[in-house]
glycerol-3-phosphate dehydrogenase (NAD(+)) (Volvox reticuliferus), 289 residues
Amino acid sequence: MFPPSGAPPQDDQLAARVQALLSNPRFRCYRSTDVIGVELAGALKNVLAIACGISDGLGFGNNARAALITRGLYEITKLAVARGANPLTMSGLAGMGDLVLTCTGDLSRNRTVGLRLGRGERLQDIQASMGGAVAEGVPTAVAIRTLARKLGVECPIMQGIHRVIHEGANAQEVVTEVMSRELKPEVAPDIIKGVIANGSNTNLMEVLAAAGPPQTPAVAEAPPPALKATALEGAAATAARNPRSILCDGGRSGEREDGAMRTATVAVLAAGAGAALGAAVVAVSRWRR
């Protein structure tokens, strides 16, 4: 299998020209206009690769590595959304694709540094033995901590790696601290609001604000008619402003899939009982072309 890659110029016509120049039967290039997302994904994954290396060095195994990649991607996505990036970029080649490779590949310099740290070697000794090669995640860990604090984004994994690399913290103790934090939902409401805000979808923001905190959904309960009507009215207004909008609960399945792939913002507001959104799931994809 030959490798794909991504090209991120903001102008789509220029991106298409770069894509055509770089692509050939052995190298397939995809284009993106999300420069911020592509740049952040390419930088932040190096720190997470060090984390995965440390996990492997401590002997935690495949499950721990998979969890680190998953939750690390969530932290990367939160930072990217806070900086105005398209969250879908994080699930593409620049995000998940490069992340998995860097966190699992035996030739990854950043993972190798983490692996040796996990086995008890000193960072200075590791760097001295690398023959001039650079593990970008080492300095990037400082930049991530600064950026996260500036944006007010919680990144416990990234913060923990900074402590191990630059503060001399014990890796096993940092793992225990991260695992012992307050229990929370897998996806916090703030990232949903951030996705919607970046899409300038004021109708959905109003619906989300009016819904109040989510509650445990009742599986068999129908959505309150008035609330469902309010949500659909906001969605219809979005579609009226942009003819290329699509309601994800309507249309052919191919249209829905294509809409999701092209979307600038996908907001899924789901299900609570009573005064929240009931058992309704309303999804609106706004095409961006």
Remarks:
- Residues 34-179 form a domain with the N-(1-d-carboxylethyl)-l-norvaline Dehydrogenase; domain 2 fold (CATH 1.10.1040.10).
- Confidence is low (pLDDT under 50) at residues 200-205, 215-223, 242-289.
- Strands lie at 4-7, 28-31, 246-247, 263-270, 281-287.
